[in-house]
Amino acid sequence: MSQIYRIMKNEQYQPYMVERYILMFGEEKTLELLRSFQKPPVPSINVNTCNISIKALKERLEAKHFHLEPVPWCSTGFWIYDAHEYEKKMNPGMVSQFQFSPGATHEYLQGMYSMQGASSMLPPVLLDPKPDDDVLDMAAAPGTKFVQMGQMMKNRGVLVGVERSLDRVPALKANVQRCGVTNSILICNDSRHIGEQFNGFGKILLDAPCTGEGLIGSDPTRKNSRSVGDIQTMRDIQVQLLENAVALLKPSGRMVYSTCSLAPEENEFVIDKVIQNHKNLAVVEPPKEIAKHFDQGLVQTMGAKFDPSLKNAIRVYPYHHPTRPEGFFAAIIEKMEKI
Ligand SMILES: C[S@@+](CC[C@H](N)C(=O)[O-])C[C@H]1O[C@@H](n2cnc3c(N)ncnc32)[C@H](O)[C@@H]1O
Fold it and tell me: Which atom of ligand 1 lies at the shortest distance from residue 148's CA?
């Protein structure tokens, strides 16, 4: 316990955060979590296979002294290292000192890949949009998952992206243009209130706005910029967004709900609350070859009990892989035609 409190003090965590981790995960996992937040994540890229093959991009990046290592849960995802450092076999968890940034190559600017966290690749992989699907992304900016879905759809079908913040639309637009996502429609609106203009969607991604506790390792300001009150505020918005996602999802349709928060209030609680209102919804099992890398969703925590299907959700903790993925939550929700 003293080690936990030493890290809490030295790293300037708000006590409520650490106390909650101990309640949710126990002391051993809390210590592991806090230690892994101290290590910066290894950057990763997602190859835009609409613009270049994986083999050709690897050759081009290797010629620029990058080394790529596959992300096991995403066939187009790779961790990217400076090749010289990688060869020296330094601590694989440490961040490479690049000669130049992988976000400033010709290949990046030509839309051959995106810089994307390895955890953030999960929701599109779980939603699995296919060419000719009709897909809605309800919280789209800055667009990494939107672009990933466009490339999975091979730029066919319809991909609608909605973003409420006008300030964040230019980044979304720039990513869509850079990567050439030609099957896309972008709308600046509040996804809690959209609906009448659409006929429903077969697949929906709700990568919900959240407190972002899972990002503490890459953005330490998250330790102090949020409060317990923010968790409650976000939870209420998330429930409203998910309720509208249910209304927009066609019968037999699937959606993925995800956040970069570890708080059950923003994850299991939100889904449980909405499932209670709709008997035709359930959290379904993710593919085993993906789930095996992570923890299951919580079915009870801090005195609350959730729908048993929530065990099918995925919880990503930063200690799940030596590359230090960011903390993340994702769940596939299915809308059954009949109950
Ligand atoms: C977690 S970020 C999404 C990241 C994005 N999916 C990606 O992969 O690049 C959440 C986004 O939702 C937007 N947002 C927040 N409330 C919203 C609402 N009511 N309707 C639509 N978008 C919203 C935020 O401005 C933010 O850009």
Answer: 8
